[in-house]
Amino acid sequence: MVWWKRDGKARQPEEPLPEPLPCPVCNGHAEAVIDMYTIGGYAGQDDFWGCRCSVCGYGFFGATGGPRSEREAISRWEILVRNTLDVIAEPLEECPKCHIAPEVKQNVVEGQAFLQCPKCFEAVCGDAPVAVKFKWNRRCRRRQAAKLKAARQARLLERVIGEDVD
Length: 166
Fold this sequence. Notes:
alpha+beta, elongated, single chain, 2 helices, 3-stranded antiparallel beta sheet
């Protein structure tokens, strides 16, 4: 084991950095990079690490409160990859109003991806297709939960009043 001194103290070298997982969107090579952030343009400069795919650009930028080391950026990237793969693997929910699968579209002017119900035109949009799918599924689940809650409350009200309530 190699030891060296810095500031009068003996330290061990760190373990080698792990190789970042491949991009979950395009399977490209990801790399940790330093992003310079200037506080207010005057006060000083801090370095924050980000991790992005070199092919499609998917990933995160270093910003205030972001990772301060390459190792932290790679571990945050691994969490992002796992969460993204979970979203990609889950099925796309049907529209809670119409029970029709949404259509995948792209806004030509702004370049945003969006999902839209072809019948009621309910839509969710965003820059990243994975985030759009996550928002759509979350919205559908919330609406389904609200319908179930309303049905439970109606049954409770029927019992309390003793007559049918529509």
